[in-house]
Amino acid sequence: MERRWNYKTSLWVDWCPGCGNFGILTAIIKAFEELSLDPSKTVIVSGIGCSGKIPHFVNVNGVHTLHGRAIPYAMGIKMANPSLTVVVHGGDGDLLGIGAGHFVALGRRNIDITVIMHNNGVYGLTKGQASPTLPLGVKTKSLAKPNIQQAVNPILLALASGYTFVARAYAFDGSHLKSLIKMAIRHKGVAFIDVLQPCVTFNDVYTADFYRRAVYKLDDDPSWDPIVRKPDDAREKLLKAMEKSLEWGERIPIGLFYKNEFVPTFEERLSKRIKGYPELNPANSVIELNGKPVLTQREFEEIFKDFIVKANK
Ligand SMILES: Cc1ncc(C[n+]2csc(CCOP(=O)(O)OP(=O)(O)O)c2C)c(N)n1
Ligand code: SF4
Ligand SMILES: [Mg+2]
To answer: In angstroms, what is the span from residue 171 Cα to ligand 2's centroid?
Structure first.
């Protein structure tokens, strides 16, 4: 019989009413439900920001770590225990400002985790400064003058860094976002979803009204086929995705830009160097002292009992 889990925690969700983060939270919970992910084998890792609060609201393992450092935590978790489903949630400041180096490194490694970016164009938690995705010359209400820096293009950066699944979604198109999250989690390799997320408090330019008018689905074009079906197609599909990623303004494409499962994952590359990996990994290795385990399972559970996630059924 299929197991049903309750993925909602009972904590009060303290985002501003109308925030796009609510759409992302609903979509991730629905995706987990439909994939029937075991909460004890699933981990959400976040940085600091309004977006970073999400692990508190989803009843799976969660790590709310440092600003910009969600990706290295997630990489460590996945490498130590490759059987886990690992999902990173980060803000645009978190992933593409302070954490940009880690974002690029993860693409190069192609570790089998999913990165979901809450892209609101601002540093929401710290009162609306321009984030790395706010275009040059745009003035949101908390900026004294128009933005003096150029924006980075998250889709283009992900493609150039080596991400093997790259998509964009809109926070208030819940069923579309949910299906992309499911595809991203199932994808073999590193997946990135850039989620356009209205910030009702600080971003009065990229509002829900603006996105409702601008976004269109790549899928609506029957000739759009972003999936690499044989290795030789990769270059052509990558170039097409890069070109498509430049479209921004009155019309903004959402959907899948690129998917390539022919690139070996980091786990596969590592297994060629480390005997027994990934079956034998730090999470299931016995740590011995003088031929005896340092901790038995019971002792371990006793020490860490406050941290063990028990799913509500
Ligand atoms: C090392 C470090 N630098 C700066 C901060 C201050 N800080 C906290 S959240 C944040 C930016 C949040 O913006 P974003 O990542 O886009 O997340 P959002 O709040 O928009 O979801 C900053 C600069 C911090 N907590 N730690
Ligand atoms: S400040 Fe913006 S991003 Fe943060 S909770 Fe409020 S609306 Fe959402
Ligand atoms: Mg932000």
So the answer is: 13
